[in-house]
Amino acid sequence: MLSRVWSLSALVAALAACSGSSAADAPSTAPDAATAGDASNASDASAPASDAADAGSPPWTSPAAHPVMPHVVDFGGSVLAHPRVQPLVFAGDPFAADIAAFTAGIGKASYWAAIGQEYGVGAIAGLPLATAAEAAPAAVTDAQVQTWINQKIAGGLVPAPDGETIYTVFYPAGTTVTSAAGTSCTSFYGYHGEGKTAAGAPFVYAVLPRCHDAYHADLDNVTNSTSHELIEASTNPYFATAPAYARVDTDHYVWAISSGGSTEVGDMCALVPGAGYLTPPDLPYAVQRMWSNAAAAASHDPCVPAPAGPYFNAAPVLPDTVTIDFGAQGKLTTQAVRIPVGQSRTIDVDLYSDGPTGPWKVEALDLATLEKKPAALGLQLDRATGANGDVLHLTITPLQTESYGIEAFYLGSGLAGRSTLWVGLVSN
Question: Please, how many CA atoms are within 13 Å of residue 382, restricted to the half-sphere of its CB?
């Protein structure tokens, strides 16, 4: 499924507006590559401002009770315990030196341990840059990418598969990559996949096109997306044949709707404001924060490495267990709030933080509206602000039936230079 490029920008702008800040640093994005693995979703957001005080909030002692956060499920497949990144570029690539420095340095940075250690992924080693003595094609398909990697393995430009190497192909500006996910830079900024050599040996690869947008430097787009693909290729290398950390738990299926169907450890943070384009202190390149099951379970910021300051969020209490019928694709049972079209229902919204904060602003956002479609949900909060331990009340009115009788919404929170979000689901 494709990621929604423009809805992501709309979400970031909406969260920024809810917090009273500028959306000048809107995100680029990159979606799922259906048959070629999962694609990167770059994200960033501008800083929200704090809101006026809410005298009714209890003093902070610990994170208040709230619904559990999602977790990325381990399906038992192997991860890369000692990953190695093999960068491949084409002759004359102006980013060649930076790509070599980035892939050599990422495994030495504290950042990599922070995003991979809990999943059993060790430090990633950067292999010497391999340069193909040929011009890059103007257009290439995913099948052709796999064939080309096979040729470079057979020709000795890069080492043979060893079960740990990620062949990472960087295409220059002017090359268009297509896959089942769509077209590079329109549908995705990168993806990872699995293939086989002519002799049948499996290998893992990643594809990074050269994408330009109005918000970030092209090199930042490359390194940010590369960090996304390298951790996902390490935590879910054989996604089709032996999945590992492959997707969100079924109770939180709505998070897959919001991310275009992709919920690996990079995708889960791709829509989170501020999760993209950070520069670690020991790595002078832009990277993305990644989902941590451990941090989420402890009510901390689930996207690591976390920024300084307390984490805060507003979580909708979804009271119903529903089964969604996807026809030929099967059925799925998940958590939602069940409301017939035209009727209304009010649910609790639990506010929590992992440290003392001032009150923050909360806004409910309809996914259909963000996608520039007719509104699917009427959403009304009884209060616009609160803090740890407060319970807001959200009245929801389905206005029309969307596909499969489900509609998604966001709860966005903003305080003191940060924004967070939670995703909720309505079933008719």
Answer: 12
